[in-house]
């Protein structure tokens, strides 16, 4: 608790409160990066679609190439989405609430932002793996290492997210004890 008799420096208070606007740099930068990636993905999708029909090649190899292009385009859109979610989340946390933002993009805390970003990153990893699986020659075992690496990252993200939600004490006690302790801490409700 702060000592009310202690002299407060109004300039320091203004500097600290005003410094939150430095996050505008992160908001604008990630928003511009999001636009760039999304527009690039759109242009690539249009070019890939045009090329697919101009060549008039409907062989299995051409179909595989179209699928690889589609998956890499989805990957671009996901990266653009990650950047947008970060941008809008930081804006809401540090600048002001956005009243018309869709419910899926509402961010009330850094925990909310981390959870939203984690979900999109997991989907992006799965899409990246799908892209590699489509290109896989069926011979190499490198796809197994990639899949295990991505699975390890996803499991780690899940564990860390869960750990941050419930805290270390609940995970150490176990689910049954943790649920009882949480109910008791809430006044038995």
Task: Give a verbal description of the structure.
The protein has 189 residues and is mostly helical. It has a domain at 10-108. It has seven helices and no strands.
Compile the SSE list and pairings.
Elements: H1 10-18, H2 23-54, H3 60-94, H4 110-135, H5 142-166, H6 168-173, H7 175-185
Helix pairs in contact: 2-3, 3-4, 4-5
Main attributes of the structure:
disordered C terminus, elongated, 189 residues, mainly alpha
> Approximately how much beta-strand content do the residues carry?
under 5%
General form: elongated
Q: Helices and strands: which structural class?
A: mainly alpha
Taking all residues together, what is the mean pLDDT?
Answer: 79
Distance between the termini: 30 Å
Order of SSEs: HHHHHHH
Low-confidence stretches: 177-189
According to DSSP, the number of beta strands is: 0
Largest sheet: none
**Rg over C-alpha atoms, rounded to the nearest angstrom:** 23 Å
User: What share of residues is helical?
Assistant: over 70%
- Helix count equals 7
